[in-house]
Amino acid sequence: MLFKAPSLKTHRVPTRKSRALKTDRYNDTTPEYSTRNGFAVYAYKGIVIEKHMNVYYIGRRIQIKGFPEDVMMRLNGTFTAASILKELIDLGLESVDEKRHIEVRGRLKNWKCPHCETITLLDAKHKHVVWRYIRNEWGDEERQDTGKRRLKCHYCFEETLLDEVEYVSDETVF
User: Fold this and answer.
1) Residues contacting 16, CB < 8 A, separation 6+
2) Whole-angstrom Cα distance, residue 57 to residue 39?
3) Spatial distance between the Cα atoms of 174 and 82, rounded to a whole number of angstroms
4) Where is the composition biased (Basic residues) (predicted)?
5) Integer Cα distance of 107 and 84 in angstroms
6) Tens of pLDDT, residues 125-149
7) How far apart are CA 150 and CA 48, in angstroms?
């Protein structure tokens, strides 16, 4: 025999599964979470620091009276080492007005989300009013301020009452 005859297939082709049995990989049980592209904003001793993909830079203008101009010029730009940025800020804070420094540190607070444990800067634009909706005698819906405020985490998108927020010290560079 010159040529071998082709053999018949002995294995069976699996049947197709219906779409109803397939599980969706984006189902509703997975929590929504955003890394914000590695972007973080927080305060270190009254100075706002922005971190993007392990590159640090000063986020806002330094508002502390007596902060040296030469240190301010050195802080312009980007830093890849947090220790160098920390040492420069500590050097500049040695000669500042203590009263103004305490006031600025009181305004710029870091908070920790109780749901995802992420630390970020507490900003006034992140606070939202909790409203109570009631119907008046004509059947129109009115809203009343409950006096409570809530914060929305930009990482896990969960909302937390401002009274339940845990504030974190601004003594460390993250």
Assistant:
1) none
2) 11
3) 8
4) 9-20
5) 25
6) 778 888 888 888 888 888 888 889 8
7) 22
